[in-house]
Amino acid sequence: MSTPYSVSLPSRPVARRAHAALRLAWTIAGAAAAVPALAQDQPAGEPEEIVVLGTYIKRPTQADAPSPLIIMSAEDIAASGASKISDVIGNLTINTGSQNNPDAFTQNQTTGTSNVNLRGLGVSSTLVLVNGRRQTQSAAATDRGENFVDTSALPPLIAFERVELLKDGATALYGSEAVAGVVNFVTRRAFDGFDLEASLQAVDGTPQQDVEISGLFGAATGDGRTHALVAFDHLDRSMLSTADRRLSTTTDDLSQAGMPGTFLIPTRPTNPVYGAVWAGAYDSNNNGIADFVEPQLGRPPVPGARPPLFADQNCTAIAARDRTVIPAIAVSVPTPLGPVPLGLCEFDFGSFYSLVPKEKRDSAYFELGRKMNGGLDGRVELSFARNDAERDNSPSFPFAAFPVVPATHPDNPYGTNVQFIGRPIGAGGSAVQTIHDSDTWRFAGSLTGALGREWVWDFGATYSENDFFVQAPDVLKDRFSNAIRGLGGEQCNPTTGTPGVAPCAYFNPFGTSLTGTGTPNTPALMTWLIGDESFDAKSDLATVEAYFTRQLGDLHGGAVGLAVGGQYRQEKLSYDYDANANRDNFMFLIGNPDFANSRNVEAAFVELSLPFLETLNLQVAARYENYGDGVDSTDPKVTLLWRPSLKLSVRASAGTSFRAPSLFQAFGTQTTLAQLIDPRVGAPQFFPVRTQPNPNGGPLQPESADVLNIGATYSPTTKLNLSLDYWSFDYSDVIVEQNPQALLNAAALGNPQALAQVIRDPTTGLLLRVDSYYQNASKLKTDGFDLSAAYTFALRGSGTLRVGTEGTYISSYDLDDPQAGHVDGAGKRNFANFGTSTPRWRANAFMNWHQQRNAVNVYVRYIDSYVDDEVQLGQGPASYRPIGSFTTVDAQYTLTLGRTNSPTLSFGAINLFGEDPPHVATNGGYDSKVADPRGRVLYAKAAFKF
Q1: Can you tell me the distance from the alpha carbon of 603 to that of 9, in angstroms, rounded to the nearest whole number?
Q2: Distance from the CA of 879 to the CA of which of 60, 162, 437, 933 falls in 20 to 30 A?
Q3: pLDDT of 249-278, one tens digit each?
Q4: What domains sit in the chain, N to C, each tagged with a CATH number?
């Protein structure tokens, strides 16, 4: 629904008072840089309409907002150097854990998207609006099954006049998802003219660059009753690969599955040389069965048993010429055949991935408004966004299972069946690409008017959809099964063919395929082995809504305001996988079933504004939403604003919020790839994780939250603004994917339910897959403080200097995780629970200087240190590794070439001093949910006004 908190400011004495009140309200947020533009004096007699998020009730003179707000104007966004919406959101100190970097290790599907994660409550717990109305969620889900509004698919950034952000729960007005707050993107509805912007941005010292062009056109008819707005944006982004800028160490990015790989041998090799080495290293019982697999046969475990691993015989030789091959060899036993290496032949995949994906983005926005007879005001909006993204990956994925290489294979030197721990392409391979394409459409229409002399009404309808396509290459199980038996190839008939005799061919998993001493894996064979897992996903949202407002009577502080309204939504989500994925026919990606479902949502709300005194206003609201199938919620909210003077404003709000299970969480299944530590082995490795609705549990219940905010703003002079807020979210029944690492840890301690969800190889006991369920976790409770201060200096020559700071301190982030138990998550990475990375402090300091045609903006951004809780089972907090703090400086200089409507040139740097993000001992080497990996980013921008 739209949010018309409108205030008409009349002649100068009243206008000055209202403007002062507005400055108090808006600095609540700590968005102090926005205040100069909003606090300019209004010419005498000229009214101004200001839309503020958080209420539907119009107040003619009371401009304060009782809820904590951030207002960022287009000028503020430009001054910060932000070129995309994810930059705007990512720089907010209240945003914790957004998934805006293309992390292939924790975000399998969502490359090319961006989202909001206020207070670390989840990327689906903040409601995103465009001009006060809902947008469909992205059809691509996070690895945890969360759907979210893709902020990269919104209208072009140039089209927005401002971004409004409500910092506490708002379900009482806006419904589900508004648990942590609401972000509203407001377009430039009164713009007249033509703006054209062109920019070039590049990561210093690398080939990566962004080339972007944006345009905005607005015009009104001669009678001023019709206004049109058109915006477009085109972005051409080249890739930044980890080969160009590697942040990880070799240890961070080692895979136990390489090519050449490793061979697991459960029983004694018949080759006498290898058999003797095997018996001495792995069979203390001298019974021909490896000690490590004895428990799989129902026998007592052998203390100190190690997996019976032989590194490929050619591992060391190939490592000497290819840096991606890493021999992790415990010992090389001398034999008549030469030294036999025991241990692993590992693969360093760290230089094959993307820090910035290759993207082509096109977006457009059209808006037409018309003031009609009878006081009617109509508006239609149409937007489209297309993003084609490519992300680099390693030359091939490892095998999730451990395929058996038969003793009859001509290249098998062991004389017995062995299991291959590896991948089809490793040494000598090059990066391959996964495709992530997204198309988003949105139509919105509204009509407002008056009903009699008392009521004002608003009716609106929106329809939006997102189509998301993902494609990734992987080895097909059935073809590999034939090829490892010598029956591979396009022309080979596995029923009538002879193993290894043309046109039938063997796949050679041994290093001899690379040295030229064994059967080669021809390009034709490899092309035949690899297929593309793909899916088409579609998300639809249709909304019809209406609300009515009026004044009821007068209290001592003014008229009582009433708003009532209702909303109907229809949500749809579908996933269509390829045929091989439907039958789980991929060696690493496994596969997924198709699904499609929909639901209807009905809602009604009421709001009252009660100005008991000129200085005291009480606002109460409540909303009921019904999702069907027993999923519904009634959520109240009370806000209080006390203004004992124009210098001081005190506010408080309390209420409840909720979020219904997403369609994906309620009905969908996905198989993702996660880096896990198998307690039976002890080294990190990627394994498939299949997440689905719990077959043993009932339907998911809606999440709910108790929300509290208490704050004050003090402005002793028009130049100084101070603000402090205490906030608290007590979040219950949070819907999460069971943490696979926590499941592994629980299974290792004998938990029967976890044991049933951990799938192991029946012969060796090695991990194959973890089955995870969506479920309502117990609780997440977080609280903390937001604070801000800003001061404006008047300089000679009509110049101004504004300095200030804003910060957020997280006092607690306590989680009750179904597997991990109670966790004090503040100041931790929260790897082994459902939380997100949570540094305690985030702060920004700024300096904005403007004099005539010159402007300089400098921002210092600080993220506190925290600790990494990714540890092996049995290790406690003492083993947590520190993750350092991260301080960067952004700077920008802008020159206006003339006077009115003159071109401007801007030159700037993000992370001016090229600070590397703090190292994290994980894939990629940094925390993608906290830090920007790019280093120093330089940019130039030209803006023209016509």
Answers
A1: 34
A2: 933
A3: 999 999 999 999 999 999 999 999 999 999
A4: 12-247+355-393+435-472+534-945 (2.40.170.20), 254-348+395-430+476-521 (no CATH)
